[in-house]
User: Fold these one by one.
Assistant:
Number 1:
Amino acid sequence: MATPNNLVYERPEAFTDMPTHYCPGCTHGVAHRLVAEVLEEMDLIHKTIGVAPVGCSVFAYNYFDTDFVEAPHGRAPAMATGVKRVLPDRVVFTYQGDGDLASIGMGEIVHAAARGENITVIFINNANFGMTGGQMAPTTLPGMKTTSSASGRDVETQGYPIKVSEMISTLDGVGYCVRRSLHDPKNIRLAKKAIRTAFETQVRGLGFSMVELLSTCPTNWGMTPVDSLKFVDEHMIPAYPLGDYKISDAIKQIKI
Amino acid sequence: MPKELWKGNEAIAEAAVRAGLEAYFGYPITPQTEILEYLSRRMPELGRAFVQAESELGAINMVYGAACTGVRVMSTSSSPGVSLMMEGLSYIAGTEIPAVLVNVMRGGPGLGNIAPAQSDYNQAVRGGGHGDYPRIVLAPASIQEAIDLMGLSFDLAEKYRMIAMMILDGSVGQMMEPAEMPEMMEVKRKDFDWATNGAMNRERRLLTSIYLNPLDEEKTNLRMLKRWKEVQTNEVRYKEYFLDDAKYVVIGFGTAGRVALSAVREARAQGIKVGLLRPITVSPFPYEALEQLIPQAEAFLVTEMNMGQMLDDVLLTVRGRVPVEFYGRPGGVVPFHNEILDEIQRLVSGPLAVQTDPRESWLTRMTA
């Protein structure tokens, strides 16, 4: 097919031709695209190894046109450590949901960050376990209904949400740790800039980088895609404030 | 190279370095911690990767990641730590990539103790992790043998894209013996056509253990079994002692086999026609070597530092044709040679039952 003269939008080169399996309205596709655009812009496609998690994005490896490995549930930061330590000149990133990163994989993420592993973590926070059908995650909001907290998360018996970016940012090995949201175009642009900065952090060897992305899960939340975006704005952001939780001085100097 | 006095755990570490180990990930646990400590010094001085992981879960998944790039990588642990690694081992097996793991076994189950044991035989040989997968398991009985098998473990793991595990009990890890190290091997990264190393100018690669279509997973299982048949044909290793005219055959691996050898020598001095079969590869198990002993054997004695695990492999081979007796010391107890000598003498004086579970009569004797 000939390329039209007025082409302003196309699939990033870092994507394969495979259509994603994500539900309509899910922001995984947006997050994938932002990562793909950044890899393309930074000319990293042919030196990147991605680490896929267990969860909805288990098939992330089908969509990125880079080398990929598929980690056991929660272990992506450990696997990424193994890859990066023997291939320090390659770019290594994990892409993990909140069940994977904040529940079963809490040990691996905290210690990878504490060691200052020079890897980039894309952390999707949609407040539930998506792939298994919408169970309560560590990030589920108080009172939020899930299939394993049918009357709403009761903090007395089911505990409180974990604020991952706040916690990770306390570790000295972390160079870059921010929270962004994917609920509207402005925030998507800010999210892309953050992802770019995270990969720049890695390329310059400035330590562990993580971007937390507030995301939607219309299917399991039982909402339309539009209502899901509103839910992020009205309920997720107050619980998980957007912001720069840690940007080291060296990273502040980076001009993109 | 001249012989030097080596501690088992440190010898294993240095042998791995000399076999081209490029990355080590581990976690402290007695009685293998000296491997971690030794490599924490040795690897950085050679510019190679070393990470003390946050847990055995972390360690095995770092191994998994590094193994995906095609470098020589290993972890070491002891029984409870190896249990934690079983998840990762299953994934590594399912991804069909080479990795090496050493288990310096201790008494169990649970926290158990830190004394030498062989009670992880079944975990190592039969699987331990979930799913259908074969794995190579080597069992050295001396420090020299551990050194020699260390290099072999990497070769076999790479050749068959499979886990090679070395199981030794805590006494081999902790004792000191004169041993000869191999020359330092030059580290050369092999250009495996499966490695996910992010290299330019080729199609992207994917390494995963997921096969969502059951027919694809079945095909993978069968491919692994086919490769395992090659391992069974080519890689069985064992040692025979005094077996030419033996009417009684002792079978034991690792330290139990080594103690049994002393007992066999003493029995020979008393004129008893007894020999020893010591499997070195416990997986693949030397079924054929054992089969060939059946016509000449009046009885077998299996001796292990557990409740009878390799015993099942012997029973599977012998299938009631000759009496099989068992003598085990589980829980972290190492048998003395005179205990095994007593058992050999019991074998000779008979009578021996063919049809009963040898564990039953052993348990009766142990608890009498």
Number 2:
Amino acid sequence: MRQLTTGPPRRRRLRGPLAVFAPSLNRRYVLTAYAFLIPAFAFFGLMFYLPIANIITNSFNTGPQANQFAGLENYTRAFEDASVQNSFTVTFIFGAATTIGAIVIGLALALLLNQPLRGRVVFRAALLVPYLTSVAIVGLLWRNILDPQLGILNRLLMDLGLPTQSWLNTHPLATIIAVTLWMTVGYTMVLFLAGLQGIPEQYHEAATVDGASPWQRFWRITLPLLAPTTLFVSVMAVISGLQAFGQAYIITGGGPANATDLYIFHVFNVAFTSRDFGYASALSFLLFIVIVIFTVIQLRVGRRNEVQY
Amino acid sequence: MAIHTPTRRDLLRWTGGGALAGLAAPLLGSCAGAPEEDSGSTSGGDDGGGSGGDFTVYWNAGHAYAAYDKVIAEFEEAHGVTVSFQKYQWDDLRTRLLSDFASGTVPDLVEEPGGWVQEFAISGDAVSLQQYVDSDGAEMGFPDDWQPRTISRNSYEGEVYGIQLHLTCMMLLYNRGMFDSAGVQPPTDWGSFLDVAEKLTGDGVHGFAMNQDDGYGWPWLLQNGVRYYDPDTKGLLVPHDAAAAALQFQADMAHKHGVSPVPTPGTDYSGPQKLLSAGRAAMIITGPWDLLPIAETSPDLDLGIAPALHEAEQSTVQAGTSLFVPAKAKSPDLAWDFIKRITALEVEVAATKEAGMLMPRLSWVQDPVVQENERYAAFAEGFAYAVDTSEKLRLTGKSGEINEQLFQTLYQDVVMNNTPATEALDRFLAAGQKVLAS
């Protein structure tokens, strides 16, 4: 006799491999989460991971179409290539200088504009504007300003009775570092301002009551409590410094004589001037590894130095 | 009728379905391969006709003349196509083109700055135009009506891969007013050049302005008898001592004699033109592309054009653009018809009248528009001894790295950094031979 039941019929439990599709409550939540993540996975997969996989594959090939297998030849060549060593050195100096400069100048500006000054909002906005401007526009702007014959800066020096300068010839790397800092310190200043405003005033008041000088308060309270911001700024600055391209492409063309041949600009030339996409892919992947190593080291060292009061 | 309100589960199901479809569509689309030509494609038959669709042309941003607009309109009407006339600066055009080659979706026709035709013929990315030349050459006057040197620079293994569109050369442009005031005549060799430059230098004016672009250093090398590449000896910049002397002469103009400012590294080659226009330089070496900017910015400047200097020989750099058809272009027949139309003599003359551009047809040189214009005629005289510097080097397939990177470094090292030419040249030769051997 057929057993009569009330309520909805029970679903038959799936066994074996199909069991994973059984819609238990937890599994439904997991599937729901994955469903929401699929667009993000699709976007990152198509736009980032597939190109990265393609670059890794190409790095083992050679020829104009990067379709001839070359094994590890591109990698061994990279370690022996004097122009790669030069561009890496140039980029390392550029990255270190822009990182240190962004932190020091950005923090100094943030400390200054954290004071109750008249018009500080205007100053903050003015300092942020270069960061909001495209590197191409900034590059062209400074190229014209720095032009030794027709540039406004030398005209100013002449009017002041000072000798004219040719910065892009005499100090090309320092010049593009300075232009980069001019462009980026506004952003780091904003980050440090946010960090400064997150430090409770009581700490400073307590330290003042205990007789700490402003310098001591800065070293013992402000700087340690800004460690997370400093870590974030330094990681981002190192990454953008090692990936800088527009400064060389727009301002100096990598010259004179490769003095400003930034790594990504060098890779670009290998790919689109020499048409060696395999070698360019290997160089790109090597930079990726270098950036990962730098970032991991920074995160480990930075987090070790974080403090909480 | 009851309205079904979607449940949360429905929404989740639709979201998941949509996301899966979004992920699958491009993947499935990519598996479908290249689109087949449909009935609306621009593929030409024997009559070269089309029946709608786009015809993509990559062009230099500075060469989009009104004279060409008229040709494009007639071409569109004749074939029922829409020309997508895309304009780029040379560097951007190359980046775009190489990306297109990698993706397989290429334009129908490309204007190139000189040198790419042979490079892409060697790599298999340009289509041979020989069959079109064989059938239509006599009618359009090719190659008989083209300057002879423009044929070899666009050929590979005996077949024509490109047709010269513009033909230019570098000459010595000078400020006649300054020359008259100083009581000097245009120089004819390096010695007289230096004398004149020294007399014209002073009071905020330089006798000469060198260009930061290394291509502008080549007239000096050619005048000293230097050739970029000798296929017999496989040597670069031969003879070496003449190359070193030519480079050192240029460096000395800036660092020893002070008759030229030290060029500033960059990507802009208009610096000397701006100095000449501003009355800050008395002489520059450049091509006809600077005539229009000079006329626009300094209409009162009395501009003279002198023949190239004579040292070991009289020589200068030949330049100019060509047209080629990518190997995977979908409408080579139409592209050839476009080439025929845009290189017609009347179009060349119209472009010259409009923009001062120089052209490769021999009949163009004889045209009254050219003969009656002192400046065009002066440049046209240079065609007789102008040399395509890197033609033989290009045939090695290694010109990109040597010409664009190593030679640029050599030029900048000597002219900007004042490194002794022999020392910098040794480094160039060592690196260059390594590239040639690779």
Number 3:
Amino acid sequence: MISLSSPVKTKAHGWPAGAKLAGLCILSILLIAITSPLIHALFFSVVLFLYLLAGRIFFVSGIKKLFILWPFILIVSLWHLYNGQTAQGITIVLRLLSAVALANLVTMTTKLSDMIDVIHRLAKPLTFIGLKTQALEISIALVIRLTPELIAKGTALSQAWRARSPKRPNWKVVIPFIVVTLDDADHSAEALRARGGIQPTHKE
Amino acid sequence: MERNLTHIALFAALIAALGLIPRIELSFGIPITAQSLGIMLAGTILGAKRGALAVLLFLLLVAIGLPFLAGGRGGLGVFAGPTVGFLLGFPIAAFIIGLIVEKTRIGPIALTATLASIIGGIVVLYIVGIAGLAVKLDKSFADSAKLMYIFIPGDIIKAIIAGIITAAIAKARPASLLSKQ
């Protein structure tokens, strides 16, 4: 399974994931506190500069990821042009762009395995309230392993439909897809149990 | 225990797969983001607790950078974007849908699941989602709500489909309909 971590290696890939996430939290809160459009413009320029530091390919793929925001930016821009509060409109748009760009930056420069390590560490204290970390870890692994498998099965079902009908597959194809998923869940449960199953938490 | 875990994990994978398989269309040619159908089905099939956990697991994997959202999106950026309210509303919606299906003992399952999907998957989800939109775009709740009106008809159709699919699963795999165990 391909994660959204960037194939272009940057220095930030080596930084501890926990620190990057903590930094993201602090900066995101800071963004909410800032109201001046000028400071927001400066902030966004710095974020763009950070992308540029990693090279052209990294910068372009980072910018492309911001394109999904265009409907919202269009609506907010039109709204504020219409009622004349342009400064406020610029603040909202830039705040949104900076927040998403910063968060994407952390995702792009952090390996999936590093993120999973962070979850592992964050989940540990939760064992006291009954969270089974082993169960959480097995679940994460199962989803990463089985999603491509399910996509392949779903695609096969769609193709089988198309082989029999001139029309595109419609929602009815979801029924056998779910049956397959539920059967897979039963089989995986049996396989897990056969290999020793989920251990109870240490507390018990 | 193992069975609960694998059902939660497989449903999280199913929600991802439903968003990534190209082109499942409604009979009217409207391309559906089958992902929100997946959220409704997590509630109607797995029940409140397991359904919500499946959705939370799905969101956790999106957050750590897997491209599981419809159109291959994911990562922390989607949680900083304007639609964050809808993402946070997903597990709440699944929980409420599951709770309604679990507690309702009368009437056909298709109807119960459809109504539960409308209440949880539209009313509750939209309230949380629009609140998020209002905060992110710095607009009033009422103004933000206007942006969402066009999606309501499609979502009502999805709720009906969720009801029909749940009834079909109740027949095909009654033992796997955990919301009714």
Number 4:
Amino acid sequence: MSTNTAPFISIRKLAKSFGAFQALRSIDLDIHRGEFVCFLGPSGCGKTTLLRAIAGLDLQDSGSIQMGGRDVSHASPAERDFGIVFQSYALFPNLTVADNVGYGLVNRRRPSAEINRRVEELLALVGLPEQSKKYPIQLSGGQQQRVALARALATAPELLLLDEPLSALDAKVRIRLRDEMRSLQQRLGVTTIMVTHDQEEALAMADRIVVMSDGAVEQVGTPEEIYRRPGTPFVADFVGHMTFLDAVVTGPGRVRVGELDLLVANAASFSAGTPVRLAMRPEEVRTRSITAETPNRFDATIGDLSFLGSYCRAHLEPTNSRSTRIAADFSTNAMRDLGILPGQVRTVAFPPESLHVFAGGGR
Amino acid sequence: MSHAATPLTMTNATVKIARPRLSERHVAGVLILALCAVLILIIALPLWALLSKSLEDPQGRFVGLANFVSYATTPTLLSSLTNSLLVASVTTAIVLPLAFLYAYALRRSCIPGRGLFYAAAMVPVFAPSLLSGLALIYIFGNQGLLKSWMMGASLYGPVGIIGAEALYSFPHAVLILVTALSLSDGRLREAAEAMGTTRWRIFHTITLPGARYGVISAAFVVFTLVITDFGIPKVIGGQFSVLATDAYRQVVGQQNFPMGAVVGIILLVPAVLAFFVDRAVQRRQSAMLSARAVPYAPRPERRRDLALLTFVSVMALAIVGPYGIAIWGSFVKYWPYNLSLTLNNYDFAAVDPEGWSTYGNSLLLASLTALIGTALIFTGAYLIEKLKLFPRLRAFAQFLAMLPMAVPGLVLGLGYVFFFNAGWNPLGFLYGTLTILVINTIAHFYTVGHITALTSLKQIDGEFESVSASLKVPFWSTFRRVTAPICLPAILDIAVYVFVNALTTVSAVIFLYGADTKLASIAIVHMDEAGAIASAAGMASVIMLTAIAVKLAHVGLDRLVFGRLQRWRQR
């Protein structure tokens, strides 16, 4: 990702409405050559609208899109250079796998031998050799998805667009295909934009994630940035699990939640007395090797425990602030080693750097 | 994907092409504009001609509503209106409960031979409407087999019209009600049964409300069919005049075009009303059934099934019987005095100078209409449904395509007379030619075909056009290679529907045929007028059997298409 060169796609002030509903509100976004970018957000956040605007399938109301240094804001899809895979795959049911993959090649008047060779090459690339004479209905969902991918890549586009390509598949196939797609993308180096509402998928596949909500970009960053340093309460809440508590800033780097005084690593911008929202991830709650020097240490009662396979989620009630409930995850290992049981009182701690402070408490 | 270890050089495999030579946008724009122009010509302008004609005097001067006033103050004209309303209301009241019970037996019971009974109910669809009138004449007419059953009353008048119309409109009601009764959530019934609800209460709290939109829709369809039908009152109405025969008499008999236009507009009212009720009803009906609904599967129940089987058998006999008798009658020497068989009645030239050539004309018309009409209707529906460009124009074309549904054939025929007969119209030379008959018949049956095409197109993945655009394949290639082949069954449906209707229709074309383009259905009217009932029945039977043969061929072809040519539909 050569971020110092000019971006491959640059989107400026892109806006679109459907009647009174604002699907996109002045989107600015740069995408670099070779990047794998995920548009992540709940349904109705505008991520698919943005993808379709980039493809030219649904034109924006205002704003511009540059692609490879060319202004394509008003170009038709055929005048842009991309391949696309839809959630439904949109495979032509009356054509064989080979004809589907070669669909865009036939139109370019290449000799049929060359087309056949290319189709075979693509089918091998997506791991579906020997299937070229079958019809789509004879393939499994995962195989259909691969055919759709091969078809999208057939014309060697500079940009690959994926609209929820994995969400119609069952969990096991989804995980295998997402790893395969990621490594294929890295090998080919094709710039890729994927729309998804599945945060795990976005975290696992993307170089950068664009979190969207309500037609606007909430945050752009690497998966780690998005997860570790969410820029807004929305991102914090949407990606991963998060406990939100109302708090008040009591001094530089200090907040108060109920009866608990906590140190926070990043609340410099708030002055004392400001109501804020404090957010913490359940897996950041520490139970081991807590000493007298450990900051943000407090006693809490283990409330109800729910078993979730490799870990358990507990609800903690601090003994001196009973109305506060904090979610905490304990690995099955920890449960066994420490003998954690409901109703116990234990000493736990929050590392100051794991606490996120957002404006707007008191809700 | 892991074994493709050799790095692929993606860019040298194909050659990037510059802009497409022919802009899809332009082609789409031209096609949609052309569609609008055709629909304006064949639908909107004739209707406009009808409306304006009703506001003119016979010399073509604008007289406002004067024609309507004189219509309302002429007792002989006004009585046709009340006659028509009476006949249509009574027929609807008779047909609706019978058709409901028939459809109920087909969909909600376990009687044997349901497919056969369904087919029996559909027989009248394949015959010109006036064959049911001729059939009743054979049975209950002055020389009828069962004349005594009439107890001295005359068949020729409201009684005969209502009887024949009931026969003719029955399949249309059954068709709608079968669909309505198919759309039911079996879980509702199971829940009711689990609570120990009585059968009668289930019927009037679940079954009937579930089908009520179908009942409303069927009522309007039957009413409209009857009030606008021309053939039956023509052959069996005697001196009893109705709106449809009035319109014919005003235009063809008295050349009083403005008064004919007034009658046409009056006929338009119930049809337009039915159209809007039907649309409102359909929207509700589809909203009523959730995607997760489980279809109801009836369980055998001896007493109910036996009662329904008896009813359905009697009804099927009452429907098929008259047509059988009419066919028989067409082979009889001198009904009912000399019942020996003969082919003389099929020597049509003896009673109509055109002879068998009218049948040839009908076949030619039906084939051309099916061929050209299906191509136009399906392509039009594709342009309206699948192209995302020019939304206003497409909405306008959609409106025009739905319009013929609300226009009875007779009214459309009148509009064609006024439009193509007008002195200023450069297309006047088409009058009386096969071309105008084809155009008119396409317009007449446009909407049903259009809806069939739309339904089929809506079932196709909406992203095919997007995928094609991304692959830089123009939409017309995808239409040819993917969309049309997938929709082949629907295209066949449309072609057969248009063919059968072109064969049987009388109402619109009776105003438009010329000396050498007379159709078989019109020849039937003329032979009946000349008193050659056996030949009229013979020609009508020939048409009916042709239509049924085409339908059977369609069923066979459908199997072939699904079975052999469309291997891709099977796993």
